[in-house]
């Protein structure tokens, strides 16, 4: 088994190397100019050369996406609990949450940017709007779909509403919450990028999305690709971290939820 | 045999009684019609009947999880934990250890931690689970999981124990062993037991009396006393008396089915 995993890793490494090699070869043999398609070596060089610009931008974008994700986890989780506890709140707020979810963030972002003066906060808010829903709806589903026989048992033992929440519904919802969080992780990054596109923040607080646009205006394709690469790697990193969190929190206790990668 | 009604008298020994109880589900299905059933303290009653005859509904009425559509339910018990219910499925919290699962009824009643732990150890010992107290349900066999479910039922020292085909999903050897363990625990703890089963053989082996139900809508069609003293041993299973009683129960079942067809 172990050697098979190693073979798989080797194969995927070889595949990536072959793709990069092919890319470089196409660019060189086709004599494609760098302002149309830079080769991977040029992109790597741009990443190195422009790190003083791209590094801080990466941090900004990661901070926005990270804050948005945290807020989505807290807000989505709490709101789901409130809605699960109260039918009235659910009837009132669920349509609102769904509406927020279906309105594209690109169209809300300019409004948010008008009303919220602090730009970073506005960006976090936009990213949060995108990231919030999967955590929220998954958690609500988990809270509401507990084993009916266990619910009977809780009734039989005279459990209070809060006891049922604490001992039955929250643990039942945990895997769903984490699955939602993994979707939200990717969306928080998407939200951060889209919001930044809309905001166009320049200067020291510019994020990767702005640097991407800026490089595009200057026809600096290698830097554009470098920024794109950083965005992709950020997405992969967020996904990996959340997978680790999921593994750690579910651990030995939730047998069937562990195997997905 | 003529269908006999179980006498229902005001009686200090009566834990729970169903008097002329009918139950109609919201979808219009009549599950029970005119069911008479009395459970005395310390008694062991088996309920047999074709599937869908309302056995489970009768148990849920006794447990107080359902209210009758017509008729009356009398219960001498008040506090939570005085009635325990065991399902065919072990219905454990998958994320909690054996010990925490067994402790759940006591937690819900806010019993002091130290006392709760003591009661949990007692219950685990009764069903022979002391060794695996820290395991999770998915790490145990089906028979072991059922034992956990039994331990959880008896941890709160109930007066009335309701079992709904508890061992039906287990292999025969395990079921025989659990039948014996249940009888031993009953002998030492003295709960009133209503044991629902679709196995004629199991009902005669376990009960002081076997109540045979008609197909839906369920009523008591026959009451067959099993005058065999306890402790009952596997030798009873091989005896003439046992087989005669089993065939009487089978005949009563057939007659009940024919009468309603």
* Radius of gyration computed on alpha carbons of chain B: 18 Å
CATH superfamily of the largest domain in chain A: MetI-like
What's the number of helices of chain B? Answer: 8
Q: What general form of chain B does the structure show?
A: globular
Total DSSP helices of chain A = 10
Average pLDDT taken over every residue of chain A: 90
Largest interface, Cβ cutoff 8 Å? A-B, 21 and 25 residues
Tell me the span between the first and last alpha carbons of chain B. 18 Å
- Helicity level of chain A: over 70%
CATH fold type of the largest domain in chain B? Rossmann fold
The biggest sheet of chain B amounts to: 6 strands, mixed
Order of helices and strands of chain A: HHHHHHHHHH
> In the residues of chain A, how many domains can be counted?
2
Task: Write a compact overview of the structure shown.
The complex is a heterodimer of chains A (261) and B (261). With 261 residues, chain A is an all-alpha fold.
What does this structure look like?
The complex is a heterodimer of chains A (261) and B (261). With 261 residues, chain A is an all-alpha fold. Chain A has helices spanning 2-29, 40-49, 51-85, 87-102, 105-115, 119-144, 148-156, 161-199, 208-217, 221-250. Chain A has two domains: 1-32; 36-257, MetI-like (MetI-like fold, Orthogonal Bundle), CATH 1.10.3720.10. In chain A, helix 4 (87-102) crosses helix 6 (119-144) and helix 9 runs antiparallel to helix 10. The radius of gyration of chain A is 23 Å and the shape is flat. Chain B has two domains: 1-77 and 159-261, Rossmann fold, CATH 3.40.50.300; 92-156, no CATH class. Chain B contains eight helices and nine strands. The two termini of chain B are 18 Å apart. In chain B, 46% of the residues are buried. The model of chain B is unreliable at 1-10 (pLDDT under 50). Chain A binds chain B through residues 147, 149-150, 152-159, 163, 167-168, 171, 174, 252-256, and chain B through 60, 63-65, 79-81, 83-85, 87, 89, 91, 93-96, 104-105, 107-109, 136, 138, 156.
